C-alpha cells in the first residue's frame, strides 16, 4: 500500500493503454487480475484484522478482482462472504468467479458485515447505479465499521471528479496501479477516504502528478537579503490583502519584501513606499506580485499595465485577474503565474467541459502562463501540459485572505529564481502545510505566520 504523494495520475484510457502494453509484453488479463486480487487480499487483511468481510462483486473486471481477493482471504482462514450485483460478464471475471467455491449471495439480500469491500465497478462504470442497488450499497457501506473501495468507490466516474449515483463515503480506497483523477478532484475525492496505491505490475506514464513535498534548499553562507529573493507587492484599494501577501512572502522565506502601498500595521521588516511605476524596474526584484486588493478601476489597471511592462517574473492574483486578457500575458517574455479561484478562472477562460486538470492545462496553453487553479483540489498546470494536483490540505482554508497568503508564498519561492512551475507547486505545498499545522478555525494572518514552520520543515 503506497502513499499517493508524487505519484502519476492516470486516466481510465491511459490505464487501459498501460494494461495493453503489459499484455503485449506477455501478461494476460487473468495474470493481471490475479496480481491485483493478491495485492487487495494482502491490504484488506492488514486493514481488517480478523473481522468478518463481505465483498461486493460487479459484472466486470473490478468484480473479478473481488472474487480473486475473496478466494485468497478465505484460503487464509478469514470469514469472507461474497454478494454479486449480477453474473460476471468478462472472461477473466467469469474464471475468477468459478474459482470461488462458496456461495454467492444475491446483492439485494446481502446481510451487513463489519468490513465491506466494494468491487462493484472501477474504471468501467458507464452510468449511475440503479436506484435500488444504490440504496442497498449505501446501507451496507454506512453500517460497516470499515469500508474499502477497490480502485474507485462505485458510482464515481474515473476521470472528472463527478459522482454519477448517490455514493456513500469510504474509509479507504485502494487505487490499482495508479491514482485516477477522481481520487483527487472534487467532489468525488471527498468520498474516497484515505487513498493508497497497490502495485499491480503495470507501469504507467502520465504528465500529471500528485503534489509532493518540494526540495527547497536553505540559504548558504554566501546568502544575503537580495540573493534570498526580493519580492515587490503592489498595493491598492483594499490594502489589507497586499499586507497579508507581503507578510506571507516574508514568512515563506523571502529575503526582502517591498510593499508598494499602504503598510499600516505591517511588521517593520516589510519595506514600504507609495506606489510609483519606476520602482518596478529594480533589477533585484525576483518576483512581482499584483492583484491582492488591487481594485478594478483605472488606477488598478494602470498599476497592472506597469507590472506587465517590466521584465520581472510576475504573479497575478485576485482583482488583477479581472482586468487582464489572457492573450496579453502570452506576449510577455518573462514568466507569469496566474492564481485564479473557480470564479476568476471562469471569468478569464470561460466555462469548460473538461475535467479540472485539463481545464487548467488548456488555460496554461492559452495564456502561456503557469496556472494555479485553486480550490480543495488545486491544480497547477504549465503550457507544456505538465500538471500537478494537490490533495485537499485543510477545509479550514475556506476563509478570506488565504488566497492572498498563497500569492505571497508563491512570489517568495519564485523570487529565488526557481523554475516557475516548481515555484508554484512549492508555494501550494507550503501553504497547505501551514494550514495543516494550524488545525481548525485559523485566520489568514495566522496562516501567513505558520509558513515559517512549514518552510523550516523542508
Ligand atoms: N486496468 C488494469 O490494468 C487492470 C484492471 N483491473 C480491474 O478492472 C477494472 C476495470 O474493469 P472493467 O473495464 O471490466 O470495468 P468495471 O469497472 O469492472 O465495470 C464494467 C462493467 O460494468 C458494467 N456497468 C458499468 N456501469 C454500470 C452500471 N451503472 N450498472 C450496471 N452495470 C454497469 C459495464 O457494462 P456496459 O457499460 O458495457 O454496459 C461492464 O460490464 C479496474 O477498475 C480494476 O478494478 C484489474 O483486474 C487488473 C488490471
Ligand atoms: N474547502 C477548501 N478546502 C481546501 N482548500 C480550500 C478550500 N477553500 C479554499 N481553499 C484554498 O484557500 C485559498 C482561497 O483563496 P481565495 O478564494 O483566493 O481567497 P481570498 O481571495 O479570500 O484570499 C486557496 O488557496 C484555495 O485553494
Ligand atoms: K469499486
TrEMBL record:
GO terms for molecular function: ADP-dependent NAD(P)H-hydrate dehydratase activity; ATP binding; metal ion binding; NAD(P)HX epimerase activity. It holds the Pfam family YjeF_N. One of its GO terms (biological process) is nicotinamide nucleotide metabolic process. K(+) binds at residues 62, 118, 154. Binds 1 potassium ion per subunit. Keywords: ATP-binding, Isomerase, Lyase, Metal-binding, Multifunctional enzyme, NAD, NADP, Nucleotide-binding, Potassium. Its cofactor is Mg(2+); K(+). The keyword Repressor does not apply. Signal peptide: none annotated. Homotetramer. Catalyzes the dehydration of the S-form of NAD(P)HX at the expense of ADP, which is converted to AMP. Together with NAD(P)HX epimerase, which catalyzes the epimerization of the S- and R-forms, the enzyme allows the repair of both epimers of NAD(P)HX, a damaged form of NAD(P)H that is a result of enzymatic or heat-dependent hydration. This is Bifunctional NAD(P)H-hydrate repair enzyme. It comes from Sphingomonas aliaeris. The gene is nnrD.
Amino acid at each position: 500500500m503506497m502513499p499517493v504523494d508524487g505519484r502519476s495520475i492516470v486516466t481510465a484510457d491511459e490505464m487501459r493503454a498501460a494494461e495493453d502494453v503489459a499484455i503485449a509484453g506477455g501478461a494476460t488479463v487473468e495474470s493481471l487480475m490475479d496480481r491485483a486480487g493478491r495485492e487487495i487480499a494482502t491490504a484488506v487483511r492488514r486493514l481488517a484484522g480478523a473481522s468478518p468481510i463481505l465483498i461486493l462483486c460487479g459484472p466486470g473486471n473490478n468484480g473479478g478482482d473481488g472474487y480473486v481477493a475473496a478466494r485468497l482471504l478465505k484460503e487464509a482462514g478469514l470469514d469472507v462472504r461474497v454478494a454479486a450485483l449480477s453474473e460476471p460478464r468478462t472472461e477473466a471475471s467469469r474464471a475468477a468467479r468459478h474459482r470461488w467455491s462458496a456461495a454467492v449471495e444475491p446483492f439485494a439480500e446481502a446481510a451487513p458485515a463489519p468490513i465491506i469491500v466494494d468491487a462493484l465497478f472501477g474504471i468501467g462504470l458507464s452510468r449511475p447505479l440503479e436506484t435500488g442497488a444504490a440504496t442497498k450499497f449505501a446501507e451496507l457501506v454506512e453500517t460497516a465499521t470499515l469500508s474499502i473501495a477497490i480502485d474507485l468507490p462505485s458510482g464515481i466516474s474515473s476521470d472528472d471528479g463527478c459522482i454519477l449515483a448517490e455514493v456513500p463515503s469510504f474509509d479507504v480506497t485502494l487505487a490499482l496501479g495508479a491514482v485516477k483523477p477522481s481520487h483527487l478532484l472534487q467532489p468525488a475525492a471527498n468520498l474516497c477516504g484515505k487513498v493508497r496505491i497497490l502495485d499491480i505490475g503495470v507501469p504507467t506514464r502520465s504528465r500529471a502528478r500528485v503534489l509532493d513535498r518540494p526540495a527547497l534548499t536553505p540559504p548558504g553562507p554566501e546568502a544575503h537579503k537580495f540573493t534570498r529573493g526580493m519580492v515587490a507587492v503592489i498595493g491598492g484599494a483594499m490594502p489589507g490583502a497586499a499586507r497579508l501577501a507581503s507578510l506571507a512572502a516574508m514568512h515563506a522565506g523571502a529575503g526582502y519584501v517591498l510593499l508598494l502601498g499602504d503598510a499600516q500595521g505591517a511588521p517593520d521588516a516589510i519595506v514600504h513606499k507609495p506606489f510609483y511605476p519606476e520602482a518596478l524596474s529594480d533589477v533585484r526584484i525576483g518576483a512581482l506580485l499584483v492583484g491582492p486588493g488591487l481594485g478594478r478601476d483605472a488606477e488598478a489597471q494602470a498599476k497592472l499595465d506597469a507590472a506587465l511592462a517590466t521584465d520581472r517574473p510576475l504573479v497575478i492574483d485576485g482583482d488583477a485577474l479581472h482586468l487582464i486578457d489572457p492573450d496579453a500575458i502570452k506576449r510577455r517574455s518573462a514568466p507569469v503565474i496566474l492564481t485564479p479561484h473557480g470564479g476568476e478562472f471562469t471569468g478569464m477562460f470561460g466555462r469548460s467541459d473538461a475535467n479540472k486538470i485539463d481545464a487548467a492545462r488548456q488555460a496554461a496553453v492559452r495564456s502561456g502562463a503557469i496556472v494555479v487553479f485553486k480550490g480543495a483540489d488545486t491544480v497547477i498546470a504549465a503550457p507544456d501540459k505538465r500538471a500537478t494536483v494537490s490533495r485537499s490540505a485543510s477545509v479550514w482554508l475556506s476563509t478570506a485572505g488565504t488566497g492572498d497568503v498563497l500569492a505571497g508564498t508563491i512570489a517568495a519561492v519564485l523570487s529565488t529564481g526557481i523554475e516557475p512551475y516548481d515555484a508554484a507547486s512549492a508555494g501550494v505545498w507550503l501553504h497547505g502545510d501551514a494550514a495543516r499545522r494550524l488545525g481548525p478555525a485559523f485566520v489568514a494572518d495566522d496562516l501567513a505566520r505558520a509558513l515559517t514552520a512549514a518552510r523550516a520543515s523542508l
